[in-house]
Amino acid sequence: MAYNAIHDNIYNYYLTAYAPKNAGKYDAHKRSELRGIYNSIIKLNKESPLYLLHNRKESAQSAMGLKESARELHMEIASLGGSLDSRELLDRKVAYSSDEDMITAKFVGASSDTDAVPSLDMEVQSLALSQINLGNFLKNDAVIALPPDTYSFDIGINDMNYEFQFSIRPGETNRNILDRLGRLIGNSHIGLTAEVIEGEDDTSSLRIESEATGLKPGKSKIFSVSDDKTSKASGMVAYLGADYVSREPANAQFTINGESRETMSNKFILDKYYEISLHGITSEEHSPVRIGLKTDYESLSDNVAQLAGSFNSFLSAVDQFKSSHSSPGRLRREMSGIASLYKDNLSGIGLNVQEDGSIDVNREVLSKAVQSDSADDKFQVIKNFTQQIFHKTDQISLNPMEYLDKTVVAYKNPGHNFPNPYISSNYTGMLFNYYC
Question: What band does 112 get if pLDDT is binned at 50, 70 and 90?
C-alpha cells in the first residue's frame, strides 16, 4: 500500500507541475480503443532496444510535457468534429455572443443537435463571488505578541477539516509569521490561495481566498478558520483575525429569456448546448446579450483558425523541451515537415506556412475560400493535413521517449524477441526509476 501511494503521489506531482490539467469528453475511450493502446505498448516494448537516459529527472519532466501537450492537441482536433470522418471533421458548430465583454459562449452539443439549438437572450444581475478572509493589519517589525510555542489551527472546506501546525520562535516578528502562514496555506492545495498584503504605516495582513465561488444549498461559507478544538496551542486565529470574512461568497444571478436563474460558478453548461462564461454585469441601459450559433461559413472559418492556433501552440510547447531532445528541434522539424507537404494548397485557403513551421491565418482569404463554390475541394487539403497531425499526436503520446536524449545499450535479437505483457512501458517506468 505504501509503495503504491508513493508512486501515485509522485505521478500526481509531475502531472500537476508539468502537464495541462483540463480533461474533455474525448479523453474517454471504448474498450476496443484501450485494447489497441495496450497492444501498441506491448509491440513497442518488444522491438525497443535497451537504453539509458541522460539527466533522468529532466527526461521525466520532458516526457510528461510532450505526452500531455500532444494529448491536448489531439483533443483539440477531435473536438472540431468529434471524429476523423472527413465528412464531419471541422464541421463543429460555433456559438456567438453579441457582447463578449459580458458573456462568452461555446457550443458543446452534438453536431446532430444543431437544428434544435435555440437562441437565447441573457442578462446578468450579479457574478458568482469567492470568499475572502482578511486578517488584522499588524506592524511588520514588531515582535509577535504571542509566547513561543507550537500552534495549530483548523481550516474547514468542502466538508473536510485540515489542521495546520507551526512554531513561533523567540524574537520572531509579525511579518515572519505572516509570510510563513501565507506559504503554508498557499502550498497546501486544498482550494485556497493566501497572500500577505501591505497596509498603511508599515503594516501587513494575511488574505485568504477560496478558489471556488458560490454557495452550496444550506451553506453560509465556503471555508472557515478556527483554533477552538485544535491539538496544539491556540490563540493565533484571534491574534491574526484570520476568521474575519471580508467578502461573503455569492451565486451568480442572471435571466434567460426573462426567466431568473442562478449558479455557483461564472462558468457553466446551459441546457447541454452552450458552455457559458459570465464576465460582467449587464446594465439596464443595455439590451440583453444574444447567444446563438454562427452560420456554417463562420463556423468553418473559426474551426480552421482554431486548428492553426492549436498547431502553433503545440510547436511552442515543443520548444520548451528542446534541451532533452535527442537532436535539437527534431520533433519540431517533423511537425513542420508535415505542414510543408501541404504548404502550397494551404496557402490557397489563407493558411500560410512560415519558415519556422508555424501557420499564419489570413482571415480575408480564408473567408472567401469558405464561401466559394469549390469550398469542399479546397478544404479537403486541410482535412488531410489534420488527419496526419492527429495520427502524429497518437504516436507522440504513445512513445514520447522517441524524442529524448538516450544512449542505446543493447538491441533486441531480431526475429527472436517476444512480447512480455508483465513489463510496463519503458517510458512509464522511466518516470520513477531515478529515485527508486
Answer: low
**Using CB atoms within 10 A of its CB, is residue 152 exposed (0-12), middle (13-18) or buried (19+)?**
middle
Q: Distance between CA atoms of 41 and 399, rounded to whole angstroms?
A: 8
0.90 surpassed by pTM:
no
* Percent of the chain residues topping a pLDDT of 90: 34
Pairwise CA distance, residues 80 & 94, whole Å:
10
pLDDT tens for each residue of 180-198: 999 999 998 899 999 999 9
Alpha helices, DSSP H only, in 257-342? 296-319, 330-341
Q: Cell for 227?
A: 483554533
Contact 158, 188 (CB under 8 A): no
User: Which residue in this structure is represented by grid cell 495541462?
Assistant: 20
Q: How far apart are alpha carbons 128 and 340 in whole angstroms? A: 47
Strand 351-353 relative to strand 120-126, pairing: unpaired
| Alpha-carbon gap, residue 185 to 245, rounded angstroms | 17
* CA 297 to chain CA mean position, Å: 29
* C-alpha count within 13 angstroms, C-beta hemisphere, residue 351: 32
Q: pLDDT of 204-222, one tens digit each?
A: 999 999 999 999 888 899 9
